[in-house]
Amino acid sequence: MDRAQKEKVVGELDQIFASSGVVVVAHYVGMTVAQMQTLRAKMRDVNGSVRVAKNKLAKIALDGKPGVKMGNLLTGMTVLAYSEDPVAAAKVCEAYAKTNEKFVILGGAMGDVVLDPAGVKAVAAMPSREELIASIVAAIGAPASNIAAVLGAPGSAIASILSTIEERLAA
To answer: What is the mean pLDDT of residues 39-56?
Structure first.
């Protein structure tokens, strides 16, 4: 790899570290190409991605970034899983690590917070952005549906009373 290619890779990694909500670092020693493709597909499903890069180039790209302390995790055969959603990549990695013992989570970074494996697990347990939006929408919509039910209740009660009176008079 010549200098221009290295500079290009550092620029790409720089963009990843700057724009990602979370970056998970893991060892992938012994994984097959098919297993790596499965991981990549799962990450694509949540608008995330997986990147294998030389540790030295990743450390250069981390220099001056909030998660610079994550550089200590970059030893051996490492893979970077990342997503803009601060939870998505952690969820996918945590789930994948349960099914593949060769995929070992080392830690990661969420902004300037460096995560250990337990931290990645804790982030994975948090609700995703879409789940939070859905719960907020449900919380906003619940009072409106309750008001509609309350406003509709007297009308249905009056109709029920009138039909009971009509049945008694007919009998």
So the answer is: 92
Structure letter (DSSP) for residue 73 = G
Q: Looking at domain 3-126, does it have CATH number 3.40.50.1580?
A: no
Per-residue confidence band for 155, with pLDDT thresholds at 50, 70 and 90: low
What pLDDT is attached to residue 82? 92
Which amino acid is present at 12? E
* Angstrom distance (rounded) from CA 27 to CA 36: 12
Residue 66 burial (CB count, 10 A): 15
Q: With H, G, I as helix, E, B as strand and everything else as coil, classify residue 84.
A: coil
> Domain limits of the chain?
3-126, 127-171
Q: Mind giving me the DSSP string for 107-147?
A: EEEETTEEE-HHHHHHHHHSPPHHHHHHHHHHHHHHHHHHH
What dihedral angle (degrees, nearest 10) is formed by the CA atoms of 17, 7, 52, 81?
10
Distance (Å, rounded) from C-alpha 93 to C-alpha 23? 10
- The answer to whether 7 and 86 have CB atoms below 8 angstroms apart is no
HEC string of 87-102 equals CHHHHHHHHHHHHCCC
pLDDT above 80: residue 66: no
Amino acid sitting at position 80: L
pTM for the structure as a whole: 0.72
